[in-house]
Amino acid sequence: EGAYSFAAMKTFFDDTIESSHVETWKEAMQMVADREADYGVLPIENSTAGSGSDIYDLMVEFPNYIVGEQIIRVEHTLMGLPGSSLEDIRTVFSHPQGLAQCREYLEGHPAWKQEKVLNTAMAAEKVARDGDRTQAAIASPAAAAIYSLSVLKEKISDNDNNSTRFIIIRHKKEYVKGADGISISFELANAHETGSLYHALGFIIYNSLNMTKIESRPIQGDKWRYRFFIDFDGNIGEAPVQDALRGMAQETINFKILGNYIQVE
């Protein structure tokens, strides 16, 4: 409770959803794959700090599918024990992304030691549990309320429009009416041949589809070879989309449709 992923879950579903907690995104993926959980909620991209590369790797490692997305406004807040002040602070705890997204503010306090924890809500919980006035956490205003901490400084993100995109995953494919975003992954059979990536992406261009994102991740154990992740607009029931997917599947190896879902503006 109090984590941004928790807020994304509540926003995408509703307050009646039953949730459980794990320490790592890999554990969340495993629970969904093992059908111990119906859905998982994972952060895949932040407007300030960029993509969550480990989440992309997990989408290939586990047989789960993207069935939705949710964008959450990130309002990082510095919080400490009730009665503490900025002058008391010696150590700041947060998720690595939380620290990265508040870099400019933290650089203004070079004496503060920065400590990484597994998520922002855990940072708030730790400060509340330890009862140490020299500790502070960077987390959401909701986390401050949940763990009875005092807000020492509001809105400390480098970017006022800081937002995180979360994906909703499930253990089986789920295509909903009105789905308008497609995510795929693939590798190139002849990665070092001139134009190999161009030819694969050409099927998107030839079918007049709009590619919205491309990411590459190194393939473990295969030096200088990469796996590509592509997002583009479309519905899997449309002929141009089917033609593009068919062509890319023939042009690449280890091709996977990661999901077709409704995009959030």
Report the portion of residues in β strands.
25-35%
What's the total number of strands? Answer: 13
Helix and strand content put the structural class at alpha+beta
Averaged pLDDT: 94
Order of helices and strands: HHEEHEEEHHEHEHEEEHEEHE
Task: Please give the count of helices.
Answer: 9
Silhouette = elongated
Strand order of the largest sheet: 6-5-7-4-8
Share in helix: 25-40%
Indicate the radius of gyration in whole angstroms.
21 Å
Distance from N terminus to C terminus (CA atoms, Å) equals 25 Å
Low-confidence stretches: none
Largest sheet: 5 strands, mixed
Keywords:
265 residues, alpha+beta, 5-stranded mixed β-sheet, 4-stranded antiparallel β-sheet, 9 helices, elongated
Give the topology:
Elements: H1 4-12, H2 25-33, E1 39-46, E2 50-51, H3 53-61, E3 65-73, E4 77-80, E5 91-94, H4 96-101, H5 103-107, E6 113-116, H6 120-130, E7 135-139, H7 141-146, E8 150-153, E9 163-170, E10 181-187, H8 196-206, E11 211-218, E12 226-233, H9 239-251, E13 253-261
Parallel strand pairs: 5-6, 5-7
Antiparallel strand pairs: 1-2, 1-9, 3-9, 4-7, 4-8, 10-12, 10-13, 11-12
Helix pairs in contact: 8-9
